[in-house]
């Protein structure tokens, strides 16, 4: 198991190297000259030239990439072009916020969707099932900035239950986390439901019933754990959706996270900051999926024995 | 038995699979001959390498080592083109009549496909005639022409598989458990059909099964496999009346017989077939064998002739 | 500070909503209005602007001009930085030199040739040539005086030390900046009023208004115009409005056909419906711009154009485009997108097919500097001297800089030079008056509107002052 | 043999019956899928017959200051926006754009991702490893973030938007196609095809792909829905389609400031998105069931 | 006469599906006595599993529904019991072994826990005691008790089937229903498992229903045999009566379809055609269109039960008029 985890962690390196190169490449396609943007209006040609040299912007892409990687290995993510602040410092400040938001959202949506999925499956085609599915689907069909605005108007302006934004305490976490959660609730619910349906048709469920296990315990003890396996995968993938959704939600709810930072940096062509953000995003997404894979092993002993 | 020509010679055939846990010896050095027009029954427990043997012979899998000489040609040395040419003669019928038929093709399309693909009959009408002929041959009602396999029962599906196998100039068929998925009554229909076809078309079969009563009924020769090894091979009557290898004996005695007459004492084996991954160099049956001796645990017994055309791989014999 | 009404509990904290995070706490490390708001509270400059945009001394005690190019400025004695050290002429010189080198603000003092320390409290600036608007350059945040010792300590403004009415507490990136009242502020007349001022970043416009309504913030300096009515109708809130000096304009690249044709440019000046733009883009919170500067500027003169599509068509026909042509409008940002849409619709009426190209700010600026655009939409605010805006925009040397229309006109260059070197106000006025007329005749721009600054605040909040640049003198905010 | 025993499904077919028909029959039983189909059909009609319903230039594009911000009523069913344009007309024409963007971007992802996935799945081994590990790089960046980066780099336009959303969905499609191919590849009929002498490309085209379509179709339907959502999201951060093109996402994003006083400006485009995405999801789910071999 | 453990009367079960109604079980009667084994034999889809599940009241609903029938287990009328009481009976009074040991065990629970679960429920033991008992059960079926903390995938097929047996027997049920318990196993393993079952059955003096399609297995373990066809029991009798005095043409067909291992030259005489479509059963005898002896009335009239002995009856039109009729196949 440990070996497997280590192997998976090692796998992260080539992926990250690739991710960084990819982003490097994409950003290099962006029109516009970084030096002019940094110096802003009224900069002299000469200064621009100097700065370009200083930043190594005239080097071929691959050299720039190499230099970046060398710095990165030494833990230096560079300085923001637009603010001059250290990228690593900025990300260190902002990332925990995004993390807090997405993790809460995942918990919320798991808390909502697993029970709904299970009940829907056990009462297939019932009113509950139908309504549950439709509600979940509507949730997934709403653009999250829209949901967010509506929630703010409703719960913070009209009812005054929650703050409309910012990051002060638990209360301010609820609306944005909920907005984010709504989008991923649908897929988790659906996966839970269909894997549950699949599982309750299995022989071992009939075996359990034939043992005299009560209905409730058949669901909770025998079916759920098996049904969770596919659901867990989806949760891992949904984490990516949440990270993406965070970009919008963070804007609507004035949440000082890394998603907003990334979009703002892209707009300012602040390459080091964009790279930093993407690395953190990709890394956390990959790590979450790694954790999910390890979680599997705990749920499913068959997988565990494959790893060892 | 030298009167008939030998159609297929398998020499030291090996097929190893790479698995995360090591080399899986699915087929480990087996050798046998098969005469034209005869049936060789291949029996053994699940996972002992029967299907793999069949597939390697048809070159659906590449052998790790060894030769397969069909009609004088070494199959595994043929160019892709020659191989395609040869495929007109050698065919396979699978165990699962569901997954072996493309669910998206109709019965006639399935049977037609090999003819079309190998450009045997170019004329559409004539090709269609041939399809109908084949359907008659295997006892499929012509009306089923446009149905899909999933609409049919196992017996009929298996007939489609047989018709497809016969569509070319088939001379040799590997039947990989063609009846084990079927009900007894249907199973008998298919077995009779296969026998009839063999007579009519002078076919040669390798008949893979784990059902000993079927193999006894159907085959001329029987080869018993255990963990990738061929442990006993003889004519069918000989094997049933005079099994030599302890495993064969146990296997025969374990068959539940549908009669009320007194049956011989059962040999109940302990344990189960062990893992084929990186097997040790000993008799692979030794750990279950009631008669195992030290030598069995130390070295591998070679296949030796114990009587006329009767080969056994056992130290104790 | 106003007399405080004796209610039970008086809030002693003011929260200001910002639409974007500040970029830097280093006054010489930013050039955006959000950061400036914070800088103005933390630091002092030699001069400052009052709400009417007049230059008044801040750190400066007195000044004189021994020659056309020399300015000797004496600073107040006993000004203390937040760390307790005293500000001297050394600090001033250091700051000015630093400003000239800082990438973000180096253009502010570009006219200054050298700065010398005369004595402990006196510095002398020497400009390259006679430069009428010199004092105005010293109100820019980029000329804030920073403590030399602190900068040399290498803290990089993580915990900035200034001399302003507020001291720094914390900056949570993307979230908020918190400042605390500087009890030891040197200027007892302009002391901070609330004990803390918090700047809260709320990027989404609607959310900003809602935060004001729910009381999460006390003042919104850039209230979305669409929400003016919401604030007006709410008795707990107050709306402040004041004309700005910012002109939003539509500029044509005179190097590119058909905009090299003055008739075409004039036609567009007739074709664009400015009223519609004001209604749609800023919900009526502004007035039509009739020339390239706001009416309050020295020597302002309105241009001859009014909305007249028929006349526009005539001019187009005369220019050889009776059936119009296709063109591209380049711009950036949501607000300007709307302006672009209205212009696009206006132009459709006279047969011109305009497409809109929205770019990221960085990319946009870069394309514009390179002259890639055919036409563009932009807004411009600068300090109150006309030269500060006119020279960058119209001087031929600034092509590739802020001469957006890429006008290369010797006559214009001559008038600009004349205007900036003339130290007599009356004469300057005449020069600029002529310049206005000249520019509007050449019509490289269609000035669109002068937007009002709109500030929404809690009705109980006192000391809300607006200058043409928006919310002003934030140290005066209090309950 | 007597044919009386034939199940009634086996009634001899005079015409060739397609599997699609079977799928359709099963799909028809699902109310929600039918509801989805009807909705999508309506939207498709709107897209196709848009010129009959509203005048593009005059209703959807032309500014009309006098009539700006009119509430829904007889003249303007869905009201008018801040420029006095008819929201209904804009939504009708927006259908074209939104569906087009959704479908094309998914097609891009499907073609590229599908090909890669099919190759990886069919050949396995090293090729599989190289392709999938490379795609892991794309997969490591959350879809929308990748799309944002790409649009930011290429500039915002319909084409670039489709490319961005398309590219960012490549790894997803590659995975689904690969999985589908893998599940088919090991079935015996593929071996049977090889046994009768079919070559690789024949096998892939004739047997593997048709049989792996089901999960791919379902995935594609769901992805069209999320592509439409992604477009809207990109509009929100200012990377959407260029004005004045009436695209739902940009209508929604552009009108969001009016959400307080003139809710309908964002309500109707929002509803259009919700309904389209919802119906595509319903169809996708319905298809998932209808195409499920286990339910055959 | 021995005590009757199970008595099923006129059981009728159908499945209502979207394609139509499957008449899975159409009025069958069975009774099983203490200590005896009834073999339930028939082709795929004959309704064997459905019958077994009805006894446990585990027919999936929807789509299944029990149309009519009385089931009496150990004197209790099961059809009337509330679900909560039924849970007490399942696993306690009657237990069931399923065909495929690979899928009958929950892959994510330890085998020990899976055995202990039933014990805990029915004997109200503490977790520790139940686990102790589970270990004993495991050892009884020949698996070292130390392996009870392993998961099913760590066991081979034969061991899994033993675990399933251990679960079924853990509460000493009065009736054990084994639904093709060895079909998925290899011959040598099948022999092990059958041997074990026979042994345990004797030890516990249970009644047993052995569902199978393998007449060889029947010959080895059963006392009585019921031949099922299209949801009906077409012939029932003692092992001897069925094997040596076959009456129903279908039963005869079954015997003629199996290759005779002792006579490899013997020709197979398969039953032609297929079992009737359970969606659409013919009005008369369901077997008539495959039957070599079919008469006119076979197609239109349902045959009555004809008794040859207290235990042996057959449903066939050949007999009421001519009890001496002999099938030609040579059996019986
Ligand atoms: N493609 C493959 N990759 C790895 N291992 C394989 C592969 N195919 C077969 N094996 C392994 O090879 C061994 C022999 O398999 P094979 O299918 O030949 O057995 P068999 O005798 O046909 O069994 P059965 O009766 O279950 O069909 C088994 O252990 C199987 O798991
Ligand atoms: N859940 C279900 N839904 C619909 N039809 C069903 C269901 N379960 C069984 N059937 C049908 O009921 C009939 C009897 O099925 P049953 O499983 O009892 O047969 P069986 O004799 O056990 O067959 P086998 O030997 O294949 O196990 C069959 O036609 C089957 O298709
Ligand atoms: Mg096999
Ligand atoms: Mg069954
Ligand atoms: Ni027939």
Automatic annotation (TrEMBL), chain A:
SUPFAM superfamilies: MetI-like (SSF161098). Residues 95-296 form the ABC transmembrane type-1 domain. PROSITE patterns: ABC_TM1. It is found in: Cell membrane. One of its GO terms (biological process) is transmembrane transport. It is a multi-pass membrane protein. GO terms for cellular component: plasma membrane. InterPro entries: BPD_transp_1_N, MetI-like, MetI-like_sf. The chain crosses the membrane at residues 12-30, 101-122, 134-157, 169-188, 227-253, 273-299. This is Peptide/nickel transport system permease protein. It comes from Spirochaeta isovalerica.
UniProtKB/TrEMBL annotation, chain B:
GO terms for molecular function: ATP binding; ATP hydrolysis activity. SMART domains: AAA (SM00382). Keywords: ATP-binding, Nucleotide-binding, Transport. The keyword Transport applies. Residues 8-252 form the ABC transporter domain. InterPro entries: AAA+_ATPase (IPR003593), ABC_transp_ATP-bind (IPR050319), ABC_transporter-like_ATP-bd (IPR003439), Oligopep_ABC_C (IPR013563), P-loop_NTPase (IPR027417). It comes from the Bacteria. Transmembrane segments: none annotated. One of its GO terms (biological process) is transmembrane transport. Gene3D superfamilies: P-loop containing nucleotide triphosphate hydrolases. The keyword Magnesium does not apply. PANTHER family: ABC TRANSPORTER, ATP-BINDING PROTEIN, TRANSPORT ATP-BINDING PROTEIN. NCBIfam families: oligo_HPY. This is Peptide/nickel transport system ATP-binding protein. It comes from Spirochaeta isovalerica.
UniProtKB/TrEMBL annotation, chain D:
It holds the Pfam family BPD_transp_1. The chain crosses the membrane at residues 34-54, 97-125, 137-163, 216-241, 262-283. GO terms for biological process: transmembrane transport. Gene3D superfamilies: MetI-like. PROSITE patterns: ABC_TM1 (PS50928). It is found in: Cell membrane. InterPro entries: BP-dependent_transpt_permease, MetI-like, MetI-like_sf, OppC_N. It comes from the Bacteria. It is a multi-pass membrane protein. Residues 95-284 form the ABC transmembrane type-1 domain. Keywords: Cell membrane, Membrane, Transmembrane, Transmembrane helix, Transport. SUPFAM superfamilies: MetI-like. GO terms for cellular component: plasma membrane. PANTHER family: D,D-DIPEPTIDE TRANSPORT SYSTEM PERMEASE PROTEIN DDPC-RELATED, OLIGOPEPTIDE TRANSPORT SYSTEM PERMEASE PROTEIN APPC. Belongs to the binding-protein-dependent transport system permease family. This is Peptide/nickel transport system permease protein. It comes from Spirochaeta isovalerica.
TrEMBL record, chain E:
GO terms for biological process: peptide transport. GO terms for cellular component: plasma membrane. GO terms for molecular function: ATP binding; ATP hydrolysis activity. It comes from the Bacteria. It is found in: Cell inner membrane. Residues 6-255 form the ABC transporter domain. The keyword DNA damage does not apply. The keyword Electron transport does not apply. Belongs to the ABC transporter superfamily. This is Peptide/nickel transport system ATP-binding protein. It comes from Spirochaeta isovalerica. The lineage of its organism: Bacteria, Pseudomonadati, Spirochaetota, Spirochaetia, Spirochaetales.
